[in-house]
Every structure is written in C-alpha cells, then in structure tokens.
TrEMBL record:
Protein name: Fluoride-specific ion channel FluC
InterPro entries, A to Z: FluC
Residues annotated as transmembrane: 32-52, 59-79, 94-114
Record entry for activity regulation: Na(+) is not transported, but it plays an essential structural role and its presence is essential for fluoride channel function.
Subcellular location: Cell membrane
Protein family membership: Belongs to the fluoride channel Fluc/FEX (TC 1.A.43) family.
Binding site for Na(+): G69, T72
Gene this chain is encoded by: crcB
HAMAP family (UniProt xref): FluC
Organism per entry: Bacillus bruguierae
Reactions listed under catalytic activity: fluoride(in) = fluoride(out)
Amino acid sequence: MNILLVSIGGFFGAIARFFISTIAKEKYGDSFPYGTFFINIIGSFLLGILYGAGVAKMWLLLCGTGFMGAFTTFSTYQLEMVQFIHKREGQKALLYFVMSYVIGIASAFAGFYMGRM
C-alpha cells in the first residue's frame, strides 16, 4: 500500500512539475530558471504545511514523499547552478543560490506555521 501511495503521488507531482516548468519558460524565457525556482519554493511551503499540520503517515507518503518528491527538483537546481558557472554567469548563480535557500527556508517555515493553525 505504501508503494502505491508514493507512486500515485509521484505520478501527479511529476506532471505538475512539467506543467509549471513549461508555463514558466513560455512566460519568462529561459535566461533564468524561474520554473525550477517557483516549483522548489511552492514545494518547500507545502511540505512545511504537511509537517506543521502533523498529517497522518498515509498523507505524508502520498503528498510528501510521492507528490513533493517528484514535484520538487533538487537535481535540476544543481544542474542549473553548474550551467550558470560553466557560462561564467556568476551573478545569476549567486542570486539563484541565495534566493532558493533564503526564500525556500522562509517558505517552509511559513507553511509549517500555517499548518499548525
């Protein structure tokens, strides 16, 4: 049952990530990885809500491990950082790094506190 929950969540998380990434590229172009950034911030916030709300294990597997595991994308973030550095776009790399971690952690805290309400 646990594998099924993670699989279902992962299926929908991957589709949501693809959808948001595609829309972000169409709207903002590809000079900055807005899609990955938005996805990871949203994912941090939603995981914070799940944790803060103390949801049951079943929901953590479906939504946390499954959906958020496939939705958020740490490996893509790392690759985009490497690409910025390879292209010698250090300012963009630094901005992306700082924004991702500072806003990501702040979003997780905000979600956590909202989940506790």
